């Protein structure tokens, strides 16, 4: 079972454009990868434009082959359409933080003003108790 997450960017109007990521959504992995490898708006745009993904940072392909580069493993790379995996537009941060209702996400990440912000969507007995959490220091490796 994966630790599901949503990865997005905040747009100028306050809305958020985001994609689903099935595996490794916890801050010690996806948070660090985002912070260390997706530091510019250009890189974030490219990441999100690729659509929904199985994982954010891997060199294993769909048939367990070793890929030439480490990076996202998009569902489109196994033949799914971008239309079925295109980014979701949320009207604001509040709507984005309720994305677990539809995606099952446990964490959200959004890029705003050059920084990544992480929220844990399940921090208490109420399934909608949301808490901003820090991305741990260090790197993935």
Helical region count? 4
Order of helices and strands: EEHHEEEHHEEE
| Main sheet record | 6 strands, mixed
What oligomeric state do these chains adopt? single chain
Main-sheet strand order equals 5-2-1-6-7-8
Tally of domains: 1
Ends apart, CA distance between termini: 23 Å
**Gross morphology:** globular
Helices and strands: which structural class?
Answer: alpha+beta
Fraction in beta strands: 25-35%
Radius of gyration, in Å, reads: 14 Å
Number of strands: 8
Low-confidence stretches: none
Secondary-structure blueprint:
Layout (H helix, E strand, L loop, with lengths): L4 E6 L5 E6 L5 H11 L3 H9 L3 E8 L5 E9 L13 E3 L2 H5 L2 H4 L3 E6 L2 E6 L10 E3 L8
Parallel strand pairs: 1-6
Antiparallel strand pairs: 1-2, 2-5, 3-4, 6-7, 7-8
What report would you give on this structure?
The protein is built from 4 helices and 8 strands. It has 141 residues and is of the alpha+beta class. It has one domain. The chain has a 6-stranded mixed beta sheet. The protein has a two-stranded antiparallel sheet with strand order 3-4. The mean pLDDT is 94.
